[in-house]
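Quarterly update, task 2.4: S-adenosylmethionine-bound model.
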Amino acid sequence: MNSKNNEYDRADFQGLYQGKSLISSVEITAVPWDIGNAQPVVCEILRSDLPGKLLDVGCGLGHNARAAADMGYIVTAIDSAPTAIKSCQKRQSKEQIRFRVANACETELNEKFDMILDSATYHAIPFSDRIAYMKEMHRLANDKTEYHVITFAPSHHGMPKPLAIELSQIADTAEKSGWQIEAVSRVEYKGNAEAIIDFCEKKNLTILLDEAGHTRLPSWHIILKTII
Ligand SMILES: C[S@@+](CC[C@H](N)C(=O)[O-])C[C@H]1O[C@@H](n2cnc3c(N)ncnc32)[C@H](O)[C@@H]1O
């Protein structure tokens, strides 16, 4: 498969953080995943474990990373978009967070993490790079690491394919990269509804909103452990 096979694979994350459109065929110029706070589902995950060393991969504007640091995690947060990381560094108030520009497929980090958090990053990585990405996460894991992946799931009220991904496809990529599925559940990833008005219209999407006006995007929460 070609490495930039569809318009989602060609999404311009750095451009978005500079005010351009994320996808060329529609207007998305506000950050769709910026709800001003950490994702509720991420807070639940963070509360479910004892704080340790956490890697937040594809950290975006850093809300999840800051929530983790507030709960006592020692956080390394990476994103490939330099403008996102600059904004995170400006808002950094805690010593236990390190924000870095890095490609998730080749981070150049040389340490192991107790938890790896992927909050809506998996579906942002082109299909053809996903094995390299998961292998890189495997390199940063030990046999106790929990790797949490939250990614769009196919649903009538969800994101279109191939942005929404079948579980079997994720399982296949994970197994080829040294990971096995420990648990799977359906969750909601919240987003900024106004940012995707044009996208929803052009793609005929019927996305549901919560009482705060945030999008309720059907997603998988997959917990992975290394294959021993
Ligand atoms: C949908 S956003 C999610 C942001 C954040 N995790 C959240 O939940 O608010 C995906 C993020 O992944 C980043 N990203 C995409 N490809 C990446 C890569 N290869 N390496 C690191 N970050 C990447 C994008 O710049 C973007 O900030």
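Highlight for this quarter: The pocket of S-adenosylmethionine is lined by residues 13, 33, 39, 58-60, 63-64, 78-81, 84, 103-105, 119-121, 124-125 (CB under 6 Å).
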